[in-house]
Amino acid sequence: MLVKRIAAVVGIASLLAGLAFAQSPAPGGRTQPPAPAAGSQAPVPAVSGQAPAPAAATQAPAGGSDADELSRQATDPTASLMAFNFINDVRTSFYGVDDDGFEFRFQPVVPFRAWKTSNILRLVVPYQMDGPGNEGLKSVSIFDLVVLPQKWGRLGIGPVMSLAESASSAESKFSIGPAVGGTHPVSKKLNVGLFNQNLFGTGVAISQLQPIIAYQLGSGWALSAGDLQYVYDWNLEEWVSLPIGFQIGKVLKVAGQPMRLSVNPQWNLKDITGANKAKIVFTATVLAPAK
């Protein structure tokens, strides 16, 4: 309980710090190329989050500040922007369980080129500090996306893998599957798309859909769908997570370092005992645009 409340205070403090620095100069640097709880019956490996994309796919905006450009990339799961995400997941309620919880996730996103092709490598390392179930390190996922520029936007495809923690009840500690997605810039301010990830292993067969909707408000601010993961369990033959929510975030400089602070409230409409019902996700992201 104490840890969870401290986490909530830290998240709120981060947002207040963002507002305090709101008048700071926009992050410097040139325009960069585009970069990136399910039901209790079936454990869902942590494969959430956004991923970045390729230099060839860059479509620099005609005008706009550096903060706005970094905001566009930070909210585009196919943009090649190196980023280090520190995610505080405050779970305020669960279905059928009188409890709350807190999970911290470290999610680095590293763009690179291999065989003359742009790639995005992402690692998700979640650590449950409080709440139902076992506390400690949870399922770690590794993701590599090959980004291919298209006339309509960008297409990404690649493998995603998950390594379950030793305390997990899953039959298989390793699962793997394909991931595919794409984004389309409707305008200089609006970007839309869809991302799909799939994991298969002994006793594991899930698919995830993540809608991509991001609108740039200006001055580094953006309103987006955030990390909404719709999860379908093929073994149970039903959806086990149906979240709704939004994310508001701002790019700013903190002690000269470009960062993005965001808050993302979510509500899960799927009533399954033990599943998360409502949560607030506070994220602090260190941005490392290419020079």
Quick one: CATH class? Mainly Beta
Mean pLDDT: 82
- Runs in which pLDDT lies below 50 for 5 or more consecutive residues are 1-43, 49-64
The number of helical segments is 2
Shape: globular
Distance N terminus to C terminus? Answer: 43 Å
Sheet with the most strands? Answer: 12 strands, antiparallel, barrel
CATH domain fold name = Porin
- Label the structural class: mainly beta
Strand order within the widest sheet?
1-2-3-5-6-7-8-9-10-14-15-16
Helix and strand sequence: HHEEEEEEEEEEEEEEEE
Number of domains as seen in the coordinates: 1
Q: What amount of the residues lies in strands?
A: over 45%
From the structure above, extract its key features.
mainly beta, Porin, 12-stranded antiparallel beta barrel, 291 residues
Write the layout of secondary structure elements.
Elements: H1 2-20, H2 66-74, E1 82-94, E2 101-114, E3 117-130, E4 136-137, E5 140-150, E6 153-163, E7 174-185, E8 190-201, E9 204-218, E10 221-224, E11 230-233, E12 238-241, E13 243-245, E14 247-254, E15 257-268, E16 276-288
Antiparallel strand pairs: 1-2, 1-16, 2-3, 3-4, 3-5, 5-6, 6-7, 7-8, 8-9, 9-10, 9-11, 10-14, 11-12, 13-15, 14-15, 15-16
Describe, in plain words, how this protein is organized in 3D.
This protein has 291 residues and is mainly beta. The chain has a single domain, classed as Beta Barrel (Porin). Helix content is 10%, strand content 52%. It has two helices and 16 strands. A twelve-stranded antiparallel β-barrel has the order 1-2-3-5-6-7-8-9-10-14-15-16. A hairpin with a 7-residue loop joins strand 15 and strand 16. The longest helix is centred in the N-terminal third of the chain and has 19 residues, at 2-20.
